[in-house]
């Protein structure tokens, strides 16, 4: 995983237990089956075969056998393969391959609740609210409304509208809530954006009514 516009670190997992000299090895990284991302040819970096979008965006740490991909973007997501060849009697022979999957993360803004009506709130009328969060990646799992009063919290699932920016590929999400105005008790309403098991959740500032 790498944050958007940060450096992604892709490991080749090559132990080099034989302590082979880099001048006897050819190392190259490719994305999918066609794009060459980085190439070190017997100790020298080679740029002839690189896919244009990776030129001047990669660095290889030969001590840690890790490729640094600078300014990682959403288009860089995918599977990368590291291939190590040894110069054996003139013809190169593959001695190691490994693959890793790159996922990009962009932080969503804190969810924010907005009123969708004007005027005074009256008992038994309906309350219309929306909750929005923007500029994140990947697509979130769900948005949940939390209605809390007198030590009780109800979780309400409502439809989540998701839109993706055509250029940046970042997501914006909105959910709407329509409930009766609470009477005679302080009620706190929050909304929770669930991003997935590993990324956790974001919660809005509660709205007190």
Automatic annotation (TrEMBL):
Residue span, Ig-like domain: 1-98, 111-191
GO terms of biological process kind: cell surface receptor signaling pathway; cellular response to lipopolysaccharide; immune response; negative regulation of T cell proliferation; positive regulation of T cell proliferation; T cell costimulation
Signal peptide positions (record): none
Cellular location(s): Cell membrane
Keyword Transcription regulation assigned: no
A Pfam family per the record: C2-set_2
Membrane topology, as annotated: Single-pass type I membrane protein
Protein name in UniProt: CD86 protein
One CC-aspect GO term: external side of plasma membrane
Source organism per UniProt: Chunga burmeisteri (Black-legged seriema)
Annotated keywords: Cell membrane, Disulfide bond, Glycoprotein, Immunoglobulin domain, Membrane, Receptor, Signal, Transmembrane, Transmembrane helix
């Amino acid at each position: 995983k790498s944050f958007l516009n940060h450096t992604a670190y892709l490991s080749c997992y090559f132990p080099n237990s034989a302590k082979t000299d880099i001048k006897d090895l050819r190392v190259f990284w490719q994305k999918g089956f066609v794009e060459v991302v980085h190439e070190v040819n017997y100790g020298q970096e080679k740029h002839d075969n690189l896919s244009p979008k990776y030129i001047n965006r990669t660095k290889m740490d030969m001590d840690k056998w890790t490729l640094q991909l600078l300014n990682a973007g959403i288009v860089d997501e995918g599977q990368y393969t590291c291939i190590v060849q040894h110069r054996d009697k003139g013809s190169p022979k593959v001695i190691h391959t490994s693959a890793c999957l790159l996922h990009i993360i962009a932080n969503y803004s804190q969810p924010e609740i907005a009123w969708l009506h004007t005027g005074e709130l009256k008992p038994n009328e309906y309350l219309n609210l929306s909750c929005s969060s923007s500029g994140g990646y990947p697509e979130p799992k769900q948005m949940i409304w939390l209605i809390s009063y007198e030590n009780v919290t109800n979780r309400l699932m409502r439809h989540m509208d998701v839109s993706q920016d055509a250029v940046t590929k970042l997501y914006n999400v909105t959910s709407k809530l329509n409930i009766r105005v609470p009477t005679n008790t302080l009620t706190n309403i929050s909304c929770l954006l669930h991003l997935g098991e590993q990324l956790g959740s974001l919660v809005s500032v509660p709205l007190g009514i």
